[in-house]
Specification:
By secondary structure, the chain is an alpha+beta fold. The protein has a domain of about 120 residues: Immunoglobulins (Immunoglobulin-like, Sandwich). The protein has 13 helices and 20 strands. Strands 3, 5, 6, 9, 10 and 11 form a six-stranded mixed β-sheet that branches. Helix 4 packs antiparallel against helix 5, helix 6 packs parallel to helix 8 and helix 8 packs parallel to helix 10. The protein binds zinc ion (ZN). Zinc ion binds next to loops.
Length: about 575
């Protein structure tokens, strides 16, 4: 339900004062500057790597259009840096705006931009501008631990997890992580915590933390979560879905308990065994097996043995999302074991994924192609709120891991077509360069689908009238950042790297609300929907969603709107995944 009363739409910026009326920076007086309801300046609050493309967006919301912007060093050096550049009118799906470029400003410093009488959030140009956020994002996971006391967060909790929904039998399923702003322990979502940590360890190794804490805290966190994940494997090799997910899709298990087994408030195990969970779980155990091979070989082997049991008990099939995870599972099992069986499975799964890419111009248009289909029939384009870039991410993984395979050129061509003929043109439709949520044929539900060409339409945000729930697109954007980062490495293409950062910049403040979506970074953070423990440093919100008109919305008014402001494991997982790919040498 969209309650316009507390969900701010993007049109509410304070009118910008005409540039000609602005005093120079020397003359400006503090009392003349106010903090607008939504700033006209949209910039990433962290700042930029010295060599990065640097863009300022100034939203036109009724005021005069400023002709230029200034970037200056607000510090106290004797000769503070200062440069003034032109702003250019830029067509944008979210309303007309001005954009300016200062990519050539590469000196390391703290900066501030001014335009149209407004100051930006101060930001840095420095080589660790992204990396210095990683310890915060990692610390979020520890704050979400379940089954143990977490200092400053909560005392030991849920020591009575859990009883089976079907038989009532009690099993020790304590531990793991609370998934989100609530206390539930979904397997698919919380495994994303571990994937983020494992990709961080793989991509950056000991150097991940500028303060030099080394890999030990990262691996210890993985092991903490994995104690719970391993307990969730049944004797047949398959893995259960969740603890405390809610008995009938409801919220009934989302509560603190008395920590005593056998009392009324014990939470439930959902013993269903869906394909997505099996595929993710195998990929996860295979990664754990690799990262612990030298430091704890017994544990590494136990994880691999468990993964083999699950692989043998599973059917490696499903919709396009699940096939993508099966492809990654097979690739990781090959990396972990070297067994040819898994290389063959990975190639076979990759071939199936290729078959689900739409290489033709469909719907009477010649603008885009190369998107994936949700499944073979009906031929609906793939659009996923969480695992959005997984199909091409699985294929680029194969291309990097098996470069001499006969299908390697097809995997590479598939990823390039997806990026060059779908993602690049679609992301160029807004000044923010974010990747839209998906393309559609016509209007599947009664709300705005933006016309693209022919019968094809698109939305930046999830449809709100398609099903009972919808939410912000943080994971979707971060997942694309991970894909674009890998593609920049494989193809040596700078444009992919720039576009990857634009996705992360939106999350960190370059959005129409001027809001940074990570608690403890940037400014104008929404208060999170986190009703049990409140603020968690480093936690990332579901983020900006859309209304029926596909306009961006975000709860900036303490409305506890879960769809835009709830913490959720996949956002921190993909943040670490994407950033570590981009930071990798
Ligand atoms: Zn708990």
């Amino acid at each position: 339900m969209h309650r316009r009363g507390f969900l701010q739409t993007m049109g509410a910026a304070a009118p910008a004062v005409a540039a000609a009326q602005q005093p120079s920076l020397k003359q400006e007086r503090v009392e003349e500057l106010t903090a607008p309801a939504a700033p006209a300046i949209a910039m990433n609050h962290l700042g930029f790597l010295p060599g990065a493309r640097k863009t300022i967006i100034f939203r036109l919301t009724g005021g005069a259009a400023p002709a230029e912007f200034t970037v200056r060093d607000p510090g106290s050096s004797l000769k503070p840096f200062r440069t003034t550049r032109p702003l250019r009118k830029t067509a944008c799906d979210f309303g007309e705006c001005m954009t300016g470029d200062f990519s050539d400003v590469q000196a390391e410093m703290m900066c501030q931009a001014t335009a149209g009488g407004e100051r930006s959030v101060p930001f840095f140009i420095r080589p660790d501008v992204w990396r210095r956020t990683l310890p915060k994002a990692v610390s979020y996971h520890k704050a979400q631990r379940c089954g143990v006391a977490v200092p400053n967060v909560h005392p030991a909790c849920h020591l009575d997890d859990a009883r089976r929904r079907d038989t009532g039998q009690h099993l020790d399923l304590t531990g793991g992580w609370h998934d989100a702003g609530d206390l539930r322990k979904w397997m698919d979502a919380t495994m994303m915590n571990a994937f983020g940590l494992l990709h961080l360890a793989r991509n950056l190794g000991e150097a991940w933390d500028p303060a030099g804490s080394g890999l030990e805290p990262v691996l210890e966190e993985v092991k903490w979560g994995n104690r719970y994940f391993l307990k969730m494997q049944d004797t047949d090799g398959l893995v259960w879905a969740d603890v405390a997910g809610g008995v009938n899709g409801d919220n009934s298990d989302n509560h603190w308990t008395d920590n005593l087994r056998g009392t009324e408030d014990d939470r439930y195990l959902n013993p269903s065994k869906g394909g997505l969970v099996q595929a993710m779980w195998i990929a996860l155990q295979a990664m754990v097996g690799q990262v612990y091979r030298s430091t704890d070989p017994g544990y590494a082997q136990a994880c691999l043995d468990a993964a083999v049991r699950c692989w043998r008990a599973s059917k490696h099939e499903g919709n396009t999302r699940d096939l993508s995870w099966w492809t990654l599972a097979a690739a990781e099992m090959h990396r972990a074991t070297g067994a040819e069986e898994y290389a063959a499975a990975a190639a076979s799964l990759g071939a199936q994924l290729l078959g689900r890419q739409n290489a033709a111009f469909e719907g009477g248009q010649k603008s885009i192609r190369g998107y994936f289909l949700s499944r073979t029939e009906p031929r609906a384009p793939y659009a996923e709120a969480v695992y959005s870039a997984l199909p091409p991410l699985a294929l680029i993984t194969l291309a990097a891991q098996f470069p001499a395979h006969p299908d390697a050129s097809r995997w590479r061509d598939s990823v390039r077509m997806h990026l060059d003929e779908y993602i690049l043109p679609m992301s160029s439709r807004s000044a923010y360069r974010i990747v839209p949520f998906g393309v559609f044929f016509g209007s599947p539900t009664k709300e705005l689908y933006r016309p693209l060409a022919g019968e094809m339409t698109y939305r930046y945000f999830l449809p709100v009238r398609q099903r009972s729930w919808w939410l912000g697109t943080t994971s979707h954007l971060e997942c694309y950042a991970a894909l674009l980062g890998e593609a920049a490495h494989l193809f040596g293409n700078r444009e992919y790297r720039d576009l990857a950062y634009r996705q992360l910049e939106w999350v960190m403040g370059a959005n129409p609300f001027g809001s940074c979506l990570m608690t403890g970074e940037g400014m104008r953070n929404p208060y999170p929907h986190s009703r049990y423990v409140g603020l968690i440093i480093g936690g990332i919100l579901n983020g900006i969603a859309g209304n029926a008109q596909d306009e961006p919305i975000l709860d900036m008014e303490y409305g506890m709107d879960w769809r835009t402001t709830e913490y959720w494991s996949p956002h921190n997982g993909f943040y670490l995944w994407a950033n570590s790919v981009l930071e990798r040498a």
